[in-house]
């Protein structure tokens, strides 16, 4: 086939894709008979009322000397690992605020960290395009550092996000600036599957975040600078199960809803959204009305759901941390405006495994733990 | 006087880079082929997705599921006011009077966890009832035996120990400012099981 013919086919195929996308958009619009807030309010739901002292900062974890970029809780025992611009991972006992480990990294440009399900190992990744694993029980070397136990190499771009597969100690998923996600075998260091890339239907820009479904660990979602989120089945790397459109900017954060059937996203367009995994429907947009004086829309950097799914915590680039009532789509609290809140952008946040505490990490170099400080009256 | 004829010839042009020869653009052709393949694949996926929308439930169906799920889950971070049910008073009286080893009966005192917990196996406990003043075992490990003075508490480990106690919801674990292994929470005067 000649180049001219190929070019004609390219133009025709592009037009066909655009037309199909438009039809899909219209068809989905026809099915959009309500949203979560519309449904909830029509069934008498009202916003949760938070008093000013209902959610309080009960711990400040100080020790990093640079911006905090990422954090993760253990599945139990209330420990947190954090990664910072200072080139260190710190493991904290969240209850006592004590540091149990401080790991100096070979590559200081770290972007993400994660705890293994058994709490014995941590993983991190960043601009070195690799994911490093540290066993917290290892003997320290001559310099007092914990040695690397495994390096996962293969990505062709920075590692932006990583998460261990919940019920499998030896498997980990990474998201990367090379537009792919990879499932790794941590014990061998080998790539098991690559999701996306040049030919398979993957992201067309950097992947910024991943979230594994705790109800079905074969499924995970990735968020990307191509403004989409994609659902993957780890058993089928050849194509994404579904692509979720809607955002108008980079998708910086993705997190599964506690029921495992929905997931939330946070984006550079300043909104969070709730998508239904199975149908692909966009169920709700969480968007704050801005003052006319606002020139720049604060971007969403990180999100987490409370254990019931009723609350959506969203960190923003302007230091706000909104607590959204997910059912009525209203902001019920701003942790960024509370006493003792962070003094900089909130870059990461995460909920403890039992849902009793939220940890936020910030560019002000600190982490803070927030818990319920109010009263439940039994009448 | 004769003048010498000067023949001025044009100097040759300085060397200049030349455009590459007109070889067939194989790289561009290959790239185009790959792109067309990707587009055709995308067309297939989009057609599949369009077909899957036929008969798909509308958004309201999904919203109903979200509403039902959220409404059914307890949440330690949410302020809550619950009415104590009358039936709970009867059970409480019964537990206080009788020694029942019926572990399948759950404590319905408003405790958010609602899980069925075994009765306390504390050997100091003469009355095996766990529920006094709504201190359900599933929410905290406060040994109902107030005279228990052992440094290491004999009470069973609560697997959900980090949940706030239902009555005063003090978030015992997190709000206790003087954390020790066994801590006397100033708000609810209960010992908090922490580790």
UniProtKB/TrEMBL annotation, chain A:
Listed GO CC annotations: plasma membrane
A matching Pfam family: WD40_Gbeta
WD repeat positions: 61-102, 152-194, 200-242, 244-285, 339-370
The entry's keywords: Repeat, Transducer, WD repeat
Alphabetical list of SMART domains matching this protein: WD40
PROSITE patterns in UniProt: WD_REPEATS_1 (PS00678), WD_REPEATS_2 (PS50082), WD_REPEATS_REGION (PS50294)
UniProt-listed GO biological process terms: signal transduction
Family (UniProt): Belongs to the WD repeat G protein beta family.
UniProt protein name: Guanine nucleotide-binding protein subunit beta
Gene giving rise to this polypeptide: LOC105060111
From TrEMBL, chain B:
Domain of life: Eukaryota
UniProt KW keywords: Coiled coil
Domain (G protein gamma) ranges: 32-91
Coiled-coil stretches: 29-56
PANTHER family assigned to the protein according to its UniProt record, in alphabetical order: GUANINE NUCLEOTIDE-BINDING PROTEIN SUBUNIT GAMMA 3 (PTHR32378:SF10)
The protein's name: Guanine nucleotide-binding protein subunit gamma 3
Originating organism: Elaeis guineensis var. tenera
